[in-house]
Amino acid sequence: MKVCGIMEVGHAQAAVDAGADAIGFIFAQSRRKVSLDAAKEICESIPSSVMKVGVFVDAGKDEIEKTAAECSLDYVQLHGNETPEFIQSLSVPSYKALPIKEKRDLDGIEEFPGRFILLDSGHGSARGGNGTTFDWSYLKNISIDKKVILAGGLNSNNIEMAVKEVNPYMVDVSSGVETNKVKDIRKIKEFIIKAKNISRMKEEVQ
User: Fold this and answer.
1) Which residues pair with 31 in a beta bridge?
2) Cα 185 off chain centre by
């Protein structure tokens, strides 16, 4: 369970208290872009058991590695046109985020290195955080040799269906826990509790 686009200590703390497994910081151009100083402050307030993820779009190798070192990031999430070779060259653990509009957008998914792959909606003007979903049925009957992080338009109303249809390793929420484009502590807690309960029920059934 990852909450992305965190810009304030209070929002990060609410997510952690509710049981978030990861916190995401956006360093690319975005209304959710966080300053390096703010990200460092937030990261210092997060327990080491919670994964800290930096989001970049076509940033240079030096910028990514410097930011990751200063903020003690556990992973970087790459939303641009980064090649498998570029990702492989990074000294910090990294994974690719793929925008999905059509089923063929999943072609070549195994070329990217890393334990994870994030699948986001390709519908919308931005590289992510558009609040839109993609057709989850594209993931049926295909084998992905990575841990799938599902993103794109998730909220408390559709999280149960998303988990049932996709069975992802992790879900990633951003706009779905906002009110008037600002993180909403009530929505953060509601989403995480619901997502955790669904995962727990699945484990009990299995």
Assistant:
1) none
2) 18
d(CA 96, CA 99): 10
Dihedrals phi, psi of 20, to nearest 5 degrees: -60, 140
Name the residue type at position 88.
Q
Strands (E), 122-169: 147-150
Q: Please answer whether residues 198 and 160 qualify as being in contact, where contact means their C-beta atoms are separated by less than 8 angstroms.
A: yes
pLDDT tens digits, one per residue of 47-68: 999 999 999 999 999 999 999 9
SS3 (DSSP) at 182: strand
Separation CA 185–CA 17 (nearest Å): 11
| Cβ atoms 163, 199 nearer than 8 A | yes
Q: Are the C-beta atoms of residues 144 and 109 closer than 8 Å to each other?
A: yes
Q: Which residues of 138-154 are buried (b: 16+ CB within 10 A; e: fewer)?
A: bbeeeeeebebbbbbbb
DSSP state, residue 92:
S
Region 2-205: CATH code: 3.20.20.70
For every residue of 96-121, DSSP letters joined together read EEEEESSGGGGTTGGGS-SSEEEEEE
What's the mean per-residue pLDDT of the chain?
92
Tokens matching residue 113: 């290195």
Within 10 angstroms of residue 53's Cβ, the number of other Cβ atoms is 25
List the structure tokens of 57: 């779009």
Task: Break the chain into its structural domains and give their ranges.
Answer: 2-205
> The pTM is what?
0.92
Active centre residues (catalytic)? 4, 120
